[in-house]
Amino acid sequence: MKIATYNVNGINGRLPVLLRWLKQDRPDVVCLQELKCSDARFPDSELQKAGYAAVWHGQKSWNGVAILAKGKTPVLTRQGLPGDPDDSHSRYIEAAVNGILIGCLYLPNGNPAPGPKFKYKLHWFDRLLSYADELLSHDVPIALAGDFNVMPTELDVYAPERWRDDALFRPEVRKAYAELVNQGWTDAVRHLHPRERIYTFWKYWRNSFERDAGLRLDHLLLSPTLASSLKSAEVRRAPRGWDHTSDHAPVMIELVSPSV
């Protein structure tokens, strides 16, 4: 079973890129972030023609998350991260697919830091920590996948010295991510590639992709009952080089187990 996460950076504007990648890699489950469209404008029919059913949580012009499943409809279990009833951002959606609970998230960017946006990011991270800990208590197969907007270590950023004060790399954010992993989650990419410099995002400017001046922002975290099934984890870099593409690349894992 293949599970992927992909920040599409506008699903309708990048739909040809998304469909091309789905046809090429044929993931079984896909978590999408930054849809940048309302619920009504989500391209459900086009995805169904490509063989994927979906659940989504849209927001006009900003944010937005979705879960796609090949050949079956994800069973929606949650829209929105608990802990703040006044939070109107569409940043979390959860569904069951093939016996696995999939949480798709788009964590706030937080810049400029310090400031209100950074405070919101840390508050959102606190809510995620609480809910992720609750999820683990159920002892079921779970994957938390998405754009976490954090580079966990210096190995995850091309020039650490330039990012010290950025909201994606500040100590508070890296500490929160470490606390999340220490709950018992497995960072799939880093688990299988402990010493490799791997990126999932490259800015559009200054030939960042060509120079491989990137950041690792997109992660798949696996619960203990799922981590034992992990076979492979890799960044699918090719779509980042296509025309009119997202500034992120898909990240995909493969699970091999009799139960999944």
UniProtKB/TrEMBL annotation:
<dbReference type="InterPro" id="IPR020847">
    <property type="entry name" value="AP_endonuclease_F1_BS"/>
</dbReference>
<dbReference type="InterPro" id="IPR037493">
    <property type="entry name" value="ExoIII-like"/>
</dbReference>
<comment type="similarity">
    <text>Belongs to the DNA repair enzymes AP/ExoA family.</text>
</comment>
<dbReference type="Pfam" id="PF03372">
    <property type="entry name" value="Exo_endo_phos"/>
</dbReference>
<keyword id="KW-0460">Magnesium</keyword>
<feature type="domain" description="Endonuclease/exonuclease/phosphatase">
    <location>
        <begin position="4"/>
        <end position="248"/>
    </location>
</feature>
<protein>
    <submittedName>
        <fullName>Exodeoxyribonuclease-3</fullName>
    </submittedName>
</protein>
<dbReference type="InterPro" id="IPR004808">
    <property type="entry name" value="AP_endonuc_1"/>
</dbReference>
<dbReference type="InterPro" id="IPR036691">
    <property type="entry name" value="Endo/exonu/phosph_ase_sf"/>
</dbReference>
<keyword id="KW-0378">Hydrolase</keyword>
<dbReference type="InterPro" id="IPR005135">
    <property type="entry name" value="Endo/exonuclease/phosphatase"/>
</dbReference>
<keyword id="KW-0479">Metal-binding</keyword>
